UniProtKB/TrEMBL annotation:
This is Carbohydrate ABC transporter permease. It comes from Leifsonia tongyongensis. Keywords: Cell membrane, Membrane, Transmembrane, Transmembrane helix, Transport. The keyword Methyltransferase does not apply. It is found in: Cell membrane. GO terms for cellular component: plasma membrane. InterPro entries: MetI-like, MetI-like_sf. The keyword Transferase does not apply. The chain crosses the membrane at residues 12-34, 54-87, 99-120, 132-155, 176-199, 236-255.
Length: 270
């Protein structure tokens, strides 16, 4: 049983860590609201107009649309393929899976810088550079290894007796997946969606290589250009950064319970 001293110490550590995490965020928000270009905090005169100015100067409207299309398409593809591959490797069993699955996991170990140049020339040859579709395909391909590993672990955590009982009742593989296993693994799926959304939305390197047309660039590229043009205007740079980060923050706030539950359930056992 935890003593009163240990409980007090735990609360003190949690409060201290929370302050360390929250303070930079609050400072960043207040810098975005500063009327001074240096970002000097002034609580008596909050300049909400900085967000409007940053939005207009950075042309974030088309960029946010591009990021939304790319992210939604990539996350949808990653999630569907992750569920199917996780079910195949974790429940059905695939011929040669002891060889195939480690090969798929190599995608988690190989850095994108290794294959980015040949991949660019391949996509350029088939006309998929400077297109949202090309970037969506790349993001899906890079997200499948983790998704397959994640959903395989989630499905393997389900008692095998449940699957066997469904088979005895006459349920086929497709029904077992979507009506039995999927509802049980829903927290893991939510977590996968949130992680995939965050990684895809925040991507800068792949977008920089494959999207050269300013009219098609996602929000991260637009933010990079905006910060390069307004280096001395700290308040506008902070406002622009918050605009780009807002979708991820909102998604996490609304689905944080599912995220935490999915992380815990996915970490219990392989």
């Amino acid at each position: 049983m935890i003593s009163r001293t240990e409980r007090t110490l735990n609360h003190f550590v949690l409060v201290f860590v929370s302050i360390l995490v929250i303070f930079p965020v609050i400072w960043f928000v207040l810098a975005a609201l500063s009327p001074d270009t240096s970002g000097r905090i002034d609580l008596t005169n909050l300049a909400w107009v900085n967000f409007v100015t940053a939005w207009n100067l950075g042309a974030f409207g088309p960029a946010m649309l591009a990021s939304t299309v790319i992210t939604v398409g990539a996350v949808a593809g990653q999630t569907v393929l992750a569920i199917l591959s996780g079910y195949a490797f974790g429940v059905l069993g695939v011929i040669g899976q002891k060889i195939i699955f480690p090969i798929i996991l190599l995608g988690l170990m190989i850095s994108s810088e290794v294959f980015i140049i040949p991949l660019y020339y391949q996509f350029h040859a088939i006309g998929l550079t400077d297109t949202w579709l090309g970037l969506i395909i790349i993001q899906i391909g890079m997200g499948v290894p983790f998704g397959a590993f994640w959903m395989r672990a989630a499905f393997r955590a389900v008692p095998p007796s449940l699957v066997e009982a469904a088979k005895i009742d006459g349920a086929r593989s497709w029904r077992i997946l979507w009506q039995i296993l999927f509802p049980i693994a829903r927290p893991a799926v939510f977590t996968l969606v949130l992680l995939s959304f965050m990684w895809t939305w925040n991507d800068f390197f792949l977008s920089l290589v494959f999207i050269a047309d300013p009219a098609k660039q996602p929000a991260t590229l637009a933010l990079g250009v905006f910060q390069g043009q307004h280096t001395l205007q700290v308040n506008l740079m902070a406002a622009g950064s918050l605009i780009v980060a807002l979708p991820v923050l909102l998604l996490y706030v609304f689905f944080q319970r599912h995220f935490i539950s999915g992380v815990i359930s996915g970490a219990i056992k392989e």
